[in-house]
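Inputs:
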Amino acid sequence: MNPGGLGSSGAQGAAGESDERRLAWAYLSRVVLGPCPALTALIDSIGIVEAARAVRERELPDVLRAATAQRRSRDLAAQDLEAIQALGGRLVTPDDPEWPAWRMLGLSQLQPGRDPDGAVPLVFWVRGNRNLAELTERALAVVGARCSTGYGDRVAGALAGELAAHGWTVVSGAAFGIDGMAHRAALAVGGATIAVMACGADRPYPAQHDRLLDRIAETGLVISEYPPGTVARKHHFLARNRLIAALSDGVLVVEAGIRSGARNTVKWARRMGRPALAVPGSVDSAASAGCHRMIRDGEATLVACVDDILADAAPLHLPVAGRATAPGEQLTGAQAAVYAALPDTGGCWPHELCAATGVAVAEVRAALAALDLAGLAGSAESGWYRLRPKAGNTTPRSRGQQ
Amino acid sequence: MNPGGLGSSGAQGAAGESDERRLAWAYLSRVVLGPCPALTALIDSIGIVEAARAVRERELPDVLRAATAQRRSRDLAAQDLEAIQALGGRLVTPDDPEWPAWRMLGLSQLQPGRDPDGAVPLVFWVRGNRNLAELTERALAVVGARCSTGYGDRVAGALAGELAAHGWTVVSGAAFGIDGMAHRAALAVGGATIAVMACGADRPYPAQHDRLLDRIAETGLVISEYPPGTVARKHHFLARNRLIAALSDGVLVVEAGIRSGARNTVKWARRMGRPALAVPGSVDSAASAGCHRMIRDGEATLVACVDDILADAAPLHLPVAGRATAPGEQLTGAQAAVYAALPDTGGCWPHELCAATGVAVAEVRAALAALDLAGLAGSAESGWYRLRPKAGNTTPRSRGQQ
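Outputs:
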């Protein structure tokens, strides 16, 4: 963080000021432990360093005096910053270029009176090397029941995997069931995924997802608005759900019981004007009852495949480069289906593509040949895989150039 | 039909006139073989007998001359009436008290220019003893894929059976798959069902549903706008679908492929302002793809249970006695669930009700005891069955009276 090597007192002064601000953010993050609109308003008004001083010295309006009373006298900022760094992590604050400012607009535009819990988070405590702003540029939340069924696991895996292979970051909550399947599917295709925690980013929660969270941190991000060591409490989960929705272009619910927390995440998405999508299932399945209820009540749109999801969530991205990096969208018919079904890594065979797409095997072979010629597919001992054209080159090379 | 015994020439004259009109309706039914808005307009303008004469003598505007040219010279009215009577059936015309005039309003209010095929049928050729107008007073169409899955069959059977047990007439098209399951389920609970045919009401179509159609005619109705002997042609099915929608309070689609005829029936329902409902299923199932598409596109509302269906389709019936004859709707919680699951005939055991409702067996037993006390359930060697309170007595007898 220290720019180093410049040696001017001005640069040192700037570094010192930066550290002071960073410590102030870390301190206040632990003091309020979660969303606190009044503190956000104070920071907006007098700045982070002054706000931290005011909290320390209790020069506060009543509402903030109560909210900060319990932990204001305990400053663990330096230890917390060390703890997250020891895990290869960092603190991301609104001062940082990787602060997902555009994403946070959704929260900052909520009316504080109507959504007292809808505040912008003070900071993100982050594990992983990826840039938070970049990773959330094209992101979809995939959430659902902890007690998922085999059907839900399969569909969550298929959809999250396909979205990740299309370049979408899969955002979820690392819970059992659908959340875990969504993360795993994104990892499996070498895609990006973000776990948003209701406890500190350093804590494996649930404990059985210890290794999964490590893997997410290796190629994606594990993030939290709570400082390291924070234990997950019931109200943290609801606050966490607002962040899952805020960091995403839309929320996809794969399975949800009638009282599922996924419905809460959907509520946040809708408040921020973002698409809420739900996958239907058997009417006999209690694990789909919440999805059916949301679709029926107009709280979520029915989606049955990735095309449906992209049709609803992608319009926000029409002018964005990300759209152009998905050449599959310029294809039609069997070629589009086969391209979408090709793995980014590993490989698969025509009969597998046939089963996955419903396209006849002869058409699959013809499509593969055309995709090969267009530089969009390659083959090896392990079978066929997807190729992405060079950035900026969205027209298949084969067209009149070979 | 002849009032008989009066012996006055006036009465004889009336009977003669009635026969003349009936012959005219039958004649024109065979001449046009299906919807013909121009002929309907002519009949409305100059009366049925005059219209038949005009057709016979070719005193017609060009559009009607073309529409009637092929069969106008062949008058089989007397034979057709004999044929349907030989099957224990009859011709129902707008002259008859059992003409479903209220139902046909939906069709007559369609704009002829926009819906050239949306004409009110001239007549119904009917097999069965029930009164057509009465039987369609509370009616729901239950339609869907011919190539249904085990899931679709099960759900169609459960929903149609429960609707029929609630006093709703189940209207369908007697096709393989969902249609057949819907009719069978209604028959199984001793409920009313109507098969609307795309061929003559005397023809078993499909041939394998010969016995099913006989059973429908025994306790419900098999009806057609085509005269006896008419063979089903492709365009008849689309015209038939408008009658299924017109005779019902709403159309429920249980499974439908992406190009299913059920979508056509839904289109008719929507044109007439009647609820279109669709049951979701697995996103992997091609047999649910049409349902999902209709829900997604806002063409149909997702329904997952009979309560959903009644909430959407029953408002039209709020002030009607039929509503009051469903005491299950005054029950709540476990009692409501158990009451809905009880068979009208035969019997079933607490553990079966437990499996059917998801209510714990102890609660099932408590609910059965309460329903027994209220006169809404009875038990015998074969298990528990549903009892209906006397007409007009919608308050369970037990409340303060025992």
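Remarks. The interface with chain A takes residues 151, 154-155, 279-284, 286, 288-289, 292-293, 295-296, 301-305, 308, 358 of chain B (CB under 8 Å). Residues 325-386 of chain B form a domain with the Arc Repressor Mutant, subunit A fold (CATH 1.10.10.10).
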